[in-house]
Amino acid sequence: MAATIAPITGILRRGLVLDLSTAFGLGTTFGYLWWYGYHLPRVRARDNYYARLEAERAAGRA
């Protein structure tokens, strides 16, 4: 009995490479967007708030 179905290893390998490269590419892109678009501005705003609060407290004590 001859095999009538072609092996699918090449298709799976190509699909796996495409899926992994897409996942890593999109993950890296959205990671950078979150880090520089949301996280760093929020941390900067928090640090500025506490620096201003500390400056006001220091001015009040002097």
Structure description:
This protein has one helix and no strands. The chain is mostly helical. It has a domain at 29-62. The protein is rod-shaped and about 95 Å long. The mean pLDDT is 90.
Strand content: under 5%
N-to-C terminal Cα separation, in Å?
96 Å
**How many strands in all?**
0
The helix/strand class is mainly alpha
The biggest beta sheet is recorded as: none
- Note poorly predicted spans: none
Shape annotation:
rod-shaped
Q: Return the string of H and E elements.
A: H
List the helices and strands and how they pair.
Blueprint: H1 9-61
Features:
mainly alpha, rod-shaped
In short:
The chain is mainly alpha-helical and 62 residues long. The protein has 1 helix and no strands.
